[in-house]
Amino acid sequence: MTIPAPSKLAYVPFVSVDNMMKLVHHIGVEQVLADLARYIQDDFARWELFDKTPRVASHSTEGVIELMPTSDGEVYGFKYVNGHPANMKKGLQTVTAFGLLADVASGYPVMLSEMTILTALRTAATSAMVAKHLAPKGAKTLAMIGNGAQSEFQALAMKTVCGIENLRLYDIDPAATAKCKANLAGSGLNITACPSPEAAIEGAQIITTCTADKQYATILTDNMVGAGVHINAIGGDCPGKTELHRDILLRSDIFVEFPEQTRIEGEIQQLEADYPVTEIWQVINGTAKGRTSDAQITLFDGVGFAIEDFSALRYVHDQLQDGNFYQDLDMVADPDDPRDLFGMLQRAKGGK
Hints:
Blueprint: E1 11-15, H1 17-27, H2 29-45, E2 56-59, E3 64-71, E4 75-83, E5 97-103, E6 109-114, H3 116-134, E7 141-145, H4 151-162, E8 166-170, H5 174-183, E9 190-193, H6 197-201, E10 206-209, E11 216-220, E12 230-233, E13 242-244, H7 246-251, E14 253-256, H8 259-265, E15 278-279, H9 280-285, E16 298-301, H10 306-318, E17 327-330, H11 341-347
Parallel strand pairs: 1-6, 7-8, 7-10, 8-9, 10-12, 11-13, 12-16, 14-15, 14-16
Antiparallel strand pairs: 1-17, 2-3, 3-4, 4-5, 5-6
């Protein structure tokens, strides 16, 4: 007896790291960042349709492993992601990730994808999308404090979406700054390596903090931050890890993704549980105000939320319609008779 071939529903498109890189280069890195910013903004505009829950986290002394699920009622998505700051010393990535989309009506998966690269892209796209709404008009200079794996993505997203022209870099490790500067050579950005965070933020209208240490840290002190800037604080992503002095928060208008998650993981874990914040989707919808004055300090306390990953996966899935940039995985056991899973197994034995 011939073993039946897997059904069409058994095959799930899988976007490997290799195919993700090919896809990004096929479209262009900056175009992908611009597209992702649009997809994320579109999904934030329909925020109320989504299931929303803080990510499910398993913490250890070494780091955290998390699941980030959501659904818009028709499509379900989740991301697996870790955060292990000490990995860099072992020659490993601090963050790795993969994600999945599924059809809500049947529960069948429709795409599996790497998300280590995609997370870096969507995090940068989210930052730029938010800055477009909150940063001072005509902002041209970005200070990047922390020049690790996320820094180039952030810089290019701010250039593409917000029109940034000047990039000022600082990292406690000069090799990281040199790496970032070299990677962005030819990007069109005017890049300055700075000897201190104070020097980096001089003249910057947007300040991004993106460091990896898993601890309460003070990357920016209150006296370093003047009026009229936008702070993009994206390094905080777990309990016990912050980058900004508490007094900066008290001087700022604070914008977040999902308060229930950010109060646990973000900069605002330093504040009272009922401290007022604004959800960025409300600014996008026009139901809340963003920047209201030239002197205002706006702060995006970004920790990453599942809807952003959903948007990124949705974008990648939309690019696969021409049959390129993925391979089919025989991933779902789908017998002709749904009651006969055991029979399917038996028929696979020795070709019988």
